[in-house]
Prior knowledge:
2 copies of one chain form a homodimer. Chain A has a 3-stranded antiparallel β-sheet with strand order 1-2-3. In chain A, helix 6 (about 100-110) crosses helix 11, helix 7 crosses helix 9 (about 140-160) and helix 9 (about 140-160) packs across helix 10 (about 165-180). Chain A starts with a helix and ends with a helix. Chain A contains 14 helices and 3 strands. Chain A is about 65% helix and about 10% strand. Chains A, B: Its cofactor is Mg(2+).
Amino acid sequence: MLEKRLTLLRTHFKELNFNKLSRVFPQIEANIDKLGEIQGHRYQDKKLAAISLVHRSSLVYWPTDKSGIFSNERLEFLGDAFLSFFVASEAMIEHRSLQEGDLSRLRAALVGTENLALKSRDLGIGECLLVGKAEMNSNPQRRDNVLADAFEAVTAALLLDAGEEKARAWLLKIFSEDLLAGKDTLLKFDAKSKLQQWTQGIIGVPPVYKAIGTEGTPQETFFIVAAFIGETEIGRASAASKREASKKVADKIIEKIESGELTKEMIVSFFGKEK
Amino acid sequence: MLEKRLTLLRTHFKELNFNKLSRVFPQIEANIDKLGEIQGHRYQDKKLAAISLVHRSSLVYWPTDKSGIFSNERLEFLGDAFLSFFVASEAMIEHRSLQEGDLSRLRAALVGTENLALKSRDLGIGECLLVGKAEMNSNPQRRDNVLADAFEAVTAALLLDAGEEKARAWLLKIFSEDLLAGKDTLLKFDAKSKLQQWTQGIIGVPPVYKAIGTEGTPQETFFIVAAFIGETEIGRASAASKREASKKVADKIIEKIESGELTKEMIVSFFGKEK
């Protein structure tokens, strides 16, 4: 049944004018091969692979008639849904004692922008992508979005071209560690809430996260974020996005708390009073 | 592959102590048969069907040892993900020209609490459900949640017991009209945003929705919601929940605008000034 529906869906993407696309982006052939290597699959329908690699920003300055040319957003929509179902079912298989709330949180962590962008980077999907230069250089949050969306789009391309079985097998390879980690993953992604609860129990307010600078090169900028209680810095970390950095800070601080390096008494003294 | 994973998942629900459950809720056997009729499927594993019908509120006053007794929340989690993937793929098959944003909105409308509660009511799933009395009598929003969650849970039970093909076929029957309606469904569900945009373009603010009373019986209460511009009521409607009622109000007002019964000039005069 699913395979029959996928066959129907596949026909929708035949409208791509591949020759036209590859005249403007001659690198697309090589990029499709690269994607095939990453996914361990030789695409029967090159159009599907091609579409999954076209970010809309690459078409902003499309030089001629745009008919038959489109971007990966519809594939991204499909891939997102398939991925969520995949992660939901696998998380349940792996963790028979996790309740719905924890399963939801685990799924959110695994299919969240941050984690999918990470997978895209690790696999080298970014290098296959056709994307406007401005998009990849400017804002790290936007870059993460592009990479996460691309992960979903290439997942859908594989689903449509190779079938459900191969797509699931590919995802299983990529997410098996995250799935096994399970609760640890949950805790890691949730360090900020954990820290917030802790300081609120002591002084009634959460720590304040501030971006205090950047490091790295103009091509590869990292944001430094520090967490403060009152005027006192209780930890700092750097990452490609402020959000990621603030999670890393929370991680570090949680470790300090667990090791006894940071105590309730210190938090009270930094803040000046108890709750 | 999917079927193999589903087989693995199925084993997780063997832990239910069916005899214990049916001693406290002897009606469960009849309810499972009813569910089977609704879904056109005879359950091989009665436990799966049983679990999908146990709302947690029915276990609040569980009289004895609770081991081996649990509710439908994990099935609901799985059903939700499967349903989302189903609707995403079918919406794309049906509407090849809809872009990602519209596809997302269509999916949200179809799998939203309101629509799933409606399906549950139409199919009679509510009558099979084991649920605390207070849960179904008190708050219509909570009742809708229970019914929508139950729809997801019985979808997952069917998926696990009958397989992906039968589950998809069942869903296709239920949602085919909504899927065909497509854009109309979108517009209907989106009347509130449409109306908001319209009044904001004229006077800079959205209409204000107020619950102005109830009607019906204590067993079946309907909320009356009216929309105001300034002091002037521009429409009212009643429904089982405030949210549903305010959508119906917006629907009615959109109709009034389209028929010319409500004009920009009127909105300006009700509000006292233009944007």
